[in-house]
Automatic annotation (TrEMBL):
SUPFAM superfamilies: P-loop containing nucleoside triphosphate hydrolases. It comes from Amygdalobacter indicium. One of its GO terms (molecular function) is ATP binding. It holds the Pfam family ABC_tran. Keywords: ATP-binding, Nucleotide-binding, Transport. This is ABC transporter ATP-binding protein.
Length: 228
């Protein structure tokens, strides 16, 4: 599903050049559920943004479902991402003028996809426990509610790959468990997941844990997966 070779991304910090991701390679198989962990500044969010095509690498390549994703134009990447990748960002990215229902439906509208858009939205709102927020505007929502709307939107197109950056931050333990169990159900249906997290309690829901430090992987371990 996901193949990365020699990925490098550098930033300029004052007069210093910092390598956020350094000659990094990894492979994630179809249907795998991988967690990426590491301390703040280790490169986790940068890596996820590179995979999502939101940042352009300085070197290396990214292939998603055998497609040369990193060599596509910005427009081609946006179209590919909308159809194939569900991105759950760490920072809120809901459109302020749209209510919850329309924010969740947005990827469908952008893709001009036929079918029962309303049915899909209501299903996801029910799954995330936010059906009663359908007509609410983003500025009225709590942090945890926004997080669940972002997750629903990422799932809207039934993507082949889900990239989640701290998807359970702002959630209480009960909601965290519900979200991770939802991810697990989606994964069992064949969707590949790559989840960045600092919450060790959620690691047991995945197949593998990769640790980043200084833009490189330093450890890899199998998870003791719950319910498998």
């Amino acid at each position: 599903m996901l193949e990365i070779n020699g990925l490098t991304k550098k930033y300029k910090r004052g007069e210093q050049i910092v390598s956020a991701v350094c000659d990094l390679s990894m492979t994630v198989a179809d249907g795998e559920f991988v967690h990426i962990v590491g301390h703040s500044g280790s490169g986790k969010s940068t890596l996820l943004s590179l995979i999502a095509g939101l940042l352009t690498p300085d070197a290396g390549e990214i292939k998603i479902a055998a497609a040369p994703f990193s060599t596509l134009t910005d427009e081609e990447r946006a179209v590919f991402r909308n159809h194939n990748i569900g991105v759950i960002p760490q920072m809120p990215t809901l459109l302020a003028a749209l209510n919850v229902f329309d924010n969740v439906a947005l990827p469908w509208y952008l893709a001009k996809k036929d079918g029962d858009v309303a049915g899909r939205v209501w299903y996801l709102l029910d799954e995330l426990g936010i059906r009663d927020l359908a007509t609410a505007l983003p500025h009225t929502l709590s942090g945890g509610e926004i997080r669940r709307v972002l997750i629903a939107r990422a799932l809207m197109m039934e993507p082949k790959l889900i990239l989640a950056d701290e998807p359970t931050s702002d959630l209480d333990p009960t909601r965290t468990k519900e979200v991770m169990e939802l991810f697990q159900r989606i994964n069992r249906q064949g969707t590949t997941l790559v989840v960045v997290t600092h919450e060790t309690d959620t690691l047991s829901y995945g197949d593998r844990v990769l640790e980043l430090s200084g833009g490189k992987f330093v450890t890899c371990q199998q998870s003791h997966v719950q319910g498998r």
